[in-house]
Amino acid sequence: QVQFVESGGGLVQPGGSLRLSCVASGFTFGTYTIRWYRQAPGKERELVMGIDSVGQPLYYTNSVMGRFTVSRDNDKNTASLQMNNLKAEDTAVYYCNAFDKWWGQGTQVTVSS
To answer: CA 109 to CA 103: how far, in whole Å?
Structure first.
C-alpha cells in the first residue's frame, strides 16, 4: 500500500534551519511529483512546495521562496525539504504526499525562541 513517512522536525529558534525527510513506498516514486504540505494549528492544510519527477522545484507558497528548497532521490524513494531562515509562521505539521490521500503522520516543526 502507499505510505509516506516524514521525519526531521523539531524545535528551532527563529532564523534556524531544519531538513525534513520523506520516505515513500507502494508506488512508482520516480514518476510522481512529490508535494510538501503543512498544517498549522487551527488552519487548513496548505501546499508549500513540490518537486516534479525530474527534480524541478514547484513553489506554491510565496512566503517560502528563497528560504526552502526541495530535493529527491528516486533511487531511494526519498524526498527532502530544506528549510532555512525559519520563522514563527512556519510552525506546523509538515507532510509529504503525491496523491492528496494516504496521509502519513507528518512531522512537527516548531519555530520559537
So the answer is: 17
Q: Which residues pair with 42 in a beta bridge?
A: none
State how far the Cα of 47 lies from the Cα of 25, in Å rounded to an integer. 21
- Cα distances from 17 to residues 101, 102, 105, in angstroms, run 28, 28, 21
| Mean pLDDT of all residues belonging to the chain | 96
Q: Tell me: pLDDT of 59 over 90.
A: no
Do residues 23 and 78 make contact, with C-beta atoms less than 8 angstroms apart? yes
CA 2 to chain centre: 17
Give me 40's grid cell.
498549522
- The string over 71-94, giving b where at least 16 C-beta atoms fall within 10 Å of a residue's C-beta and e elsewhere, is ebebeebbbbbebeebeeebbbbb
